[in-house]
Design goal:
This protein is of the alpha/beta class. It is 35% helix and 26% strand. A hairpin with a 6-residue loop joins strand 3 and strand 4. The N terminus is likely disordered.
Length: 153
């Protein structure tokens, strides 16, 4: 047996597919797309309550014509310079490929350009832990973007 076979190599993390496009969508655009494309019922069940009020907007990950990730955002009606992150969801078939990170990086680029502060809405404990970690790393890379991690900040 060769030494290479005895030493276990760490598995490489899957990379985001090159064909994923990150797009901005309004509520109407997202709902139109949802009505036309329902490839993964479980994924759509998780995001079916997206708003139609028009005050929310979305950063989406798209493969071909299929939406595989959605970041729900809303401008704070009491502080128009702040954007709330209402939710982040990725189709289970596309998870662990960096798609959520790409959508959140796009959020930071947008927030830097528009001078908005990013604020987390309420999430599950697991979701909160994940988002705080990712947003902390992105905030370090985008020092001009202010991030509010909880209502106590």
């Amino acid at each position: 047996m060769k030494i290479d076979e005895l030493v276990s190599k760490p598995k490489a993390k899957p990379k985001t597919p090159a064909m994923v496009r990150i797009e901005h969508m309004t509520s109407n655009q997202l709902h139109t797309h949802i009505g036309v494309h329902r490839e993964n019922r479980k994924f759509w069940d998780r995001i079916k309550y997206v708003s139609t009020r028009g005050s929310e907007f979305y950063i989406t990950a798209v493969v071909g014509e299929r939406i595989v990730g959605v970041t729900s955002l809303q401008i704070n009606p009491y502080n128009r310079s702040q954007v709330w992150v209402m939710g982040v969801s990725v189709d289970p078939q596309f998870q662990n490929q960096g798609i959520a990170g790409r959508m959140l990086r796009e959020l930071f680029v947008w927030a830097e350009h528009t001078q908005h502060e990013i604020s987390l809405s309420s999430f599950t404990d697991q979701g909160q832990q994940y988002l705080v970690g990712v947003l902390s790393r992105l905030a370090h890379a985008h020092p001009r973007v202010s991030v509010k991690y909880s209502s106590q900040d």
